[in-house]
Write a structure and sequence with these properties.
The complex is a heterodimer of chains A (207) and B (141). Chain A is of the alpha/beta class and 207 residues long. Chain A is 39% helix and 21% strand. Chain A contains five helices and ten strands; from the N terminus they run H-E-E-E-E-H-E-H-E-H-E-E-E-E-H. In chain A, the strands form three sheets. A five-stranded mixed beta sheet of chain A has the order 6-5-4-9-10. A two-stranded antiparallel sheet of chain A has the order 2-3. In chain A, strands 7-8 form a two-stranded antiparallel ribbon. With 141 residues, chain B is an alpha/beta fold. Chain B contains three helices and eight strands, in the order H-H-E-H-E-E-E-E-E-E-E. Classes of the chains: A alpha/beta (207), B alpha/beta (141). Strand 1 of chain A pairs antiparallel with strand 6 of chain B, so a sheet runs across the interface.
């Protein structure tokens, strides 16, 4: 009798462990098996050699290389501040997705590359992007050639239309510390889907 | 003395621990069954309905496509309209020497792009490899 109590306790513990084991396995495998909503390329795009001027702090700007901080992600979007639909919608989705991430949002930086250098002055960029994301990199190409280099790297386009509007690609790219594009979301992606994908990617890039 | 030894040593008596130990294994078994059942329920709730298999829509843009279209040829490498369901996958292989634009998907030369559709909606955009110049992808729930 003296031995029965500890044996039962041990048995219950073993039983609990046995019960919990399949849960643990299911939880471990969830991210790997859950499909991503973004598009994946093979081979992946490498944009780590793209350098642009970041005018987030000063009008003269400081050099910025398109790479995430180690262990983090950089979301890059090409747009312009007077865009009537695509840009505000996409930036709002980014804002919501980052908000859903909670503390992990600190590992997700945002870079807005303007395709409208003439109208998007540093002040205008700060005002527009600041409505959606604080601390974003505001990248303003020095000239059309520099913008073209960046666009080629990302496989995006922008064409000015009569009347001043600009037809442009509206994908958001998620980039790691090496400058590799891990995933791209086409326009219209929901914030929830983006949040889900970001969680998966953050696990991948965790150091 | 270990528990095992204690049980063994008492095995000779009429009220031996063989009968006394049985409830432990019953508890263990019940816990394992409950655990396995809970896992099955969890997985069933998490997984999409298996009623319909997810399809893969795979297209290959052959070499010379861009050049032939430029020369005025009407090629139907990719449909102008594509109806898919949530969970389906679009795979585009571009083996041409030119970049192809299929709606929001810009596929680099000698590259593959994979998009899984996870939400219903309609995607309309420019298509550089369809005679109409446009593609409409409808994603149904």
């Amino acid at each position: 009798m003296a031995f029965r109590t500890p044996t039962i306790v041990r048995g219950v513990l073993v039983g609990l462990l046995l019960s919990a084991l399949p849960f643990a396995c299911a939880a471990c495998g969830s991210d790997a098996s859950e499909p991503l909503s973004g598009m994946v390329r093979t081979p992946k795009l490498h944009v780590g050699s793209v350098h642009l001027s970041d005018v987030a702090v000063t009008d003269t700007g400081s050099p910025f290389t398109i790479r995430a901080r180690p262990g983090g992600l950089l979301l890059v979007y090409f747009g312009y501040t007077t865009c009537p639909d695509l840009c505000p919608t996409t930036m709002a989705a980014i804002r919501s997705a980052r908000a859903e991430l909670g503390q992990d949002a600190q590992r997700v930086d945002v870079a807005f590359i303007t395709v409208d250098r003439t109208r998007d002055t540093p002040q205008v960029l700060r005002a527009f992007v600041g409505k959606f994301v604080s601390g974003a990199h505001l990248l303003r190409p020095a000239n059309a050639a520099q913008l073209a280099v960046a666009q080629r790297a990302f496989l995006v386009t922008a064409n000015e239309q009569p009347g001043g509007s600009i037809d442009h690609s509206s994908t958001v790219a998620a980039i790691d510390a090496s400058g590799t594009v891990l995933l791209e979301w086409p326009f219209g992606i929901s914030a929830a889907a983006m949040t889900h994908d970001l969680r998966v990617l953050l696990k991948q890039v965790a150091t | 003395m270990s528990d095992l030894e204690a049980r063994s040593s008492g095995g000779g008596s009429g009220n031996g621990p063989a009968r006394g130990a049985r409830p432990i294994w019953i508890v263990l078994a019940m816990l394992a069954i409950v655990g396995a059942f809970a896992v099955l329920v969890t997985l069933a709730l998490r997984s999409p309905s298996p009623a319909r298999s997810q399809k893969v829509y795979e297209y290959t843009i052959p070499p010379g496509t861009g050049q032939r279209i430029e020369a005025g040829e009407k090629l139907y490498v990719f449909p102008g309209r594509l109806d898919v369901r949530v969970g389906d996958q679009l795979v585009i292989h571009n083996t041409d020497t030119r970049v192809a634009e299929v709606g929001p998907y810009t596929v680099d030369r000698n590259a593959t792009l994979v998009q899984r559709f996870n939400q219903p909606g309609t995607i309309v955009g420019i298509c550089s490899i369809h005679p109409s110049g446009q593609v409409t992808i409808t994603v149904r729930a």
